[in-house]
Amino acid sequence: MAKRTALDDELEALLTPTIEAMGFEVIRVRLLGNSPQILQIMAERPDGTISVDECANISRAVSAVLDVEDPVSGNYTLEVSSPGIDRPLTRLKDFDRFDGLEAKIELKQAVDGQRRFRGRLDGVEGDEVRLVTEQGILGFALEMIDQAKLVMNDELLKMAGASQSDADSQ
User: Fold this and answer.
1) What is the C-alpha to C-alpha distance for residues 64 and 170, in angstroms, rounded to an integer?
2) 74: which of 8, 47, 89, 117 lies 20 to 30 Å off by Cα?
3) 92-168 belongs to which CATH class?
4) Chain-wide mean pLDDT for the chain?
5) With helix as H, strand as E and coil as C, how does the chain read?
6) Which of 55-76 are b and which e, b meaning 16 or more Cβ less than 10 Å from the residue's Cβ?
7) Per-domain residue ranges for the chain?
8) In CATH, what is the architecture of 6-81?
9) CA-CA distance, 85 to 156, in Å (whole number)?
10) What's the pTM?
């Protein structure tokens, strides 16, 4: 997992208003790689869905903003996508929504000599993300978390399949 940078924060602040105005929530904005760079935007509707056509619409809208503001030096490829099944967890509501599923969390700074944790999400208490690990129940303020994501496993695949069945039946 790549470490979040100040430029990532700047890009997210620049692009979020445009994406939200289109009815989507920004999950993550990251500038990845060196040559070529990839500007990755993950977004979804509040109900957790997004279509290929909607990704293309977001791409066109943010391209216009990026052309005017020109915040990235050098060449890059713009990639707009859904967060996917093993999605990054970036907001308190993500940790609450996926309560009970397995996740990996990497902290910005080590706590008791450890930066990486893996366990079962135990929701949110105040502004603290809770994780059940072999060490017990741990709590991390969202600001302490550099990155977090769901772990791909049978339980997650089963949940994703059930969600897709629900979406198909509507």
Assistant:
1) 34
2) 89
3) mainly beta
4) 91
5) CCCCCHHHHHHHHHHHHHHHHCCCEEEEEEEECCCCEEEEEEEECCCCCCCHHHHHHHHHHHHHHHHHHCCCCCCEEEEEECCCCCCECCCHHHHHHCCCCEEEEEEEEEECCEEEEEEEEEEEECCEEEEEECCEEEEEEHHHEEEEEECCCHHHHHHHHHHHHHHHCC
6) beebeebbeebbeeeeeeeeeb
7) 6-81, 92-168
8) 2-Layer Sandwich (3.30)
9) 7
10) 0.83
Torsion of CA 45, 99, 101, 161, to 10 degrees: -40
Report the candidate in 27, 30, 26, 29 with the shortest Cα–Cα distance to residue 18.
26
Residue type for position 86: D
Residue 67 near residue 51, CB atoms below 8 Å: no
| Closest to 47 in 3D by CA, of 168, 158, 167, 151 | 167
Question: Residue 80: left (phi > 0), alpha (psi -120 to 50), or beta?
Answer: beta
Q: 40-70, pLDDT tens digit by residue?
A: 999 999 998 999 999 999 999 999 999 999 9
The pLDDT of 141-145, averaged and rounded, is 95
